[in-house]
Amino acid sequence: MSLSMADRDGFIWLDGKLVPWRESRLHVLTHALHYGSAVFEGERIYEGRVFRLAAHSARLINSARLLDYEIPWTRAEIEEATRAVVKANGLQAGYIRPIAWRGSEVMGVSAIGTSVHLAIAPWAQEGRLSIQARDAGINVTMAKYRRPSGDFAPGLAKVAGLYVICGIEKDRALKAGFDDALMLDWNGNLAESTGANIFLVIDGKLVTPTPENFLDGITRRAVMGMARKRGWAVEERPVKPQELARASEVFLCGTAAEIVPVGSIDGHHYQAGPVARTLMADYQKLVRAPDCEGFGESTHLMQQVDRAA
After folding, report:
1. Does 295 map to a domain?
2. Read out DSSP for 27-46?
3. Looking at the chain, which terminus has fewer C-beta neighbours within 10 angstroms, N or C?
4. In the structure, what pLDDT confidence band is assigned to residue 297 with cuts at 50, 70 and 90?
5. CB 249 within 8 A of CB 261
6. Active site residues
7. Would the pTM of this model clear 0.85, i.e. be above it?
8. Same domain, 138 and 280
């Protein structure tokens, strides 16, 4: 198989129909390419089913609304299209990238008058975490850029343009010999890594930053639900970076990463301890459950999408 994402066999669902992979194209003057107005999701396929498909589809629609445009397909239609393209590609396990964007009818800062497009592309992808990383944890450094406040950017939307600082920080971390970077928010509190939420175990409690203008991750919600099902205390609150020194365990979580123990953060060292290991095992059962496609531990906002339709 080619290493290029553009040169592959298979199919992509594009604007209502299945298209051969290499024929799914857009124009160079597409608005989203120039002004970052695309919204997207990352989803995982387990045993032929998409984990939390309903929640991801709802968040995609809501992200577009936060950018002041409507995706011209309902949540149910997006879910049906996702299942169809997974089946067409014969995938039992893998990753899915749904993306909606504004087209090429207008070239300028304003996107009024542009059409809205939707593509759904799935591909085979195994877990990214090596056995060594599961045992020892990944190495993380602190990022220089911070997540902006709600006065500066719609951080609750999964918007392509907002990931530019994540890409810069991820590249900077990799070039310096780390696996990822941990970002603060505009107040100097812990926020998230470049593509995943963070949890700390402090004094026997599971602590996670309140999602103030960054994504309240679907995997994050799943982790909180699993912990509470076990009777563990979970705190959502502002978390100071100084609290990293008090943590006995730290781990990241996200759709692509699943649950990833952290071994070190700029001089603070941790064990891939019992909390992370237990949740990792619970998560593998959860994503393979027969009812895994539903909303699950979704936010109230996600469920508002259907009522607003």
Report:
1. no
2. -TT-HHHHH---EE--EEEE
3. N
4. confident
5. yes
6. 158
7. yes
8. yes
